[in-house]
């Protein structure tokens, strides 16, 4: 389960500021966190405010290439098979993670596919108007590890409701 915080709506013109990931197991005890130095002079103050970082703080974050390599190394350590990218809003999160992997490392360990947690729940409930967010336990704080953990908790609840997924 992956979550990102960014200072704007698209990668390249704007920057991913932090990334959190949780390996989905019943224990939810294997997590990853990274912060990224901005890659662009552009940022939207309202988007930056969601992350609770100042622009000055973000300028001291590590370079993206090294952090993406650290994420790759963590994925290899915790996922013996090909990892599956799942997030709450995969249209947003995937866009940044995929772009950063290809831009900085030349490949994406997740391949070319991602899964949207909300869509999984809608299919399980057979209702396109339902929302899974009531299944979270961990509060949604906009810290990417907290948010990924809450989403992983929701996925575990969905498994208990009959979603076929292997861990």
Folded structure, characterized:
The chain is α+β, with helices and mostly antiparallel strands and 167 residues long. 41% of the residues lie in helices and 13% in strands. The strands form 2 sheets. Strands 1-2-3 form a 3-stranded antiparallel β-sheet, with helices on both faces. A two-stranded parallel sheet has the order 4-5. α3 packs across α4. It is globular and about 45 Å long. It starts with a strand and ends in a 7-residue tail after the last helix.
Largest sheet properties: 3 strands, antiparallel
Mean pLDDT across all residues, rounded? Answer: 97
Radius of gyration: 16 Å
Task: Report the end-to-end length measured between terminal Cα atoms.
Answer: 12 Å
Q: Strand pairing plus helix content: what structural class?
A: alpha+beta
For this structure, the CATH topology is Nucleotidyltransferase, domain 5
How are helices and strands ordered from N to C? Answer: EEEHHHEHEHH
Low-confidence stretches: none
Share of helix among residues? 40-55%
Enumerate the strands of the largest sheet in spatial order, edge to edge or round the barrel.
1-2-3
The CATH superfamily label reads Ribonuclease H-like superfamily/Ribonuclease H
What would you call the shape?
A: globular
- Quick one: CATH class? Alpha Beta
Q: How many distinct folded domains?
A: 1
Known CATH architecture: 2-Layer Sandwich
Q: Could you tell me the number of beta strands?
A: 5
GO molecular function: exonuclease activity; nucleic acid binding
Keywords: Exonuclease, Hydrolase, Nuclease
Protein name: Exonuclease RNase T and DNA polymerase III
Organism: Haliscomenobacter hydrossis (strain ATCC 27775 / DSM 1100 / LMG 10767 / O)
